[in-house]
Amino acid sequence: MPVTTTPYTQEMVLIHRVFRREAAQLLRFVSATATGDVGRARQLGQWTREYIGGLHHHHATEDALIWPLLHERVMLHHELVDRMEMQHHALDATLNEITERLAAWEQSAGETERELLAASVADHQRVLLEHLHDEEELVMPLVEEYLEPDEWEKVGKAGLENLPKEKVFLALGAILEEATDEERAFFMAKVPAAGRVLWKLVGQRQYRRQMAALRGGLQ
Predict the structure, then answer these.
(1) d(CA 117, CA 103)
(2) pTM value?
(3) pLDDT tens string 173-217
(4) 3-class DSSP state for residue 2?
(5) How far is it, in rounded angstroms, from Cα 12 to Cα 159?
């Protein structure tokens, strides 16, 4: 476990790594789907809704536990905090458009519907990457300076504890997939002992099966 007297904001960088990877994969998977392959379209539709739900959950946690404290304590940086909140709204708009176009594509897997959805995903990815970059470079230093470690700990706990039980292994697997040894140790230390055992016995295999079915030969 990292020893620090300030919030361990690398935790947020790791979460962001997941969203960068998943958004990029979504664009590749949609674009590579054959016209008329309704089965694949519906499979990706289900996975896309998982992604959207995860991103909404992540932002709801930030909105509840980070931005109010920064608004209160960082008087000279209101413009920056407002910018982050506006980016959240912009991301919500892109996700709403994806949801609308996804429904039409799932019905027919048509070429036009696929191209429209891919364009929406590409627009979402652009807004997402800008937001994640700004948050890591501009906001996380403020978190380290103005939030207490126990306040930051509440953010991480809320991120896992408020997930539906059936989604915990999926989320944990996504986080650990590209984690360094230090990051992996940090996250696993947050998981209760019983959860760590279940992850080793069941969760890892479950996650690998899910990803193999989703990705096939695509990465």
Answers:
(1) 10
(2) 0.90
(3) 999 999 999 889 888 888 889 989 999 999 999 999 999 999 986
(4) coil
(5) 11
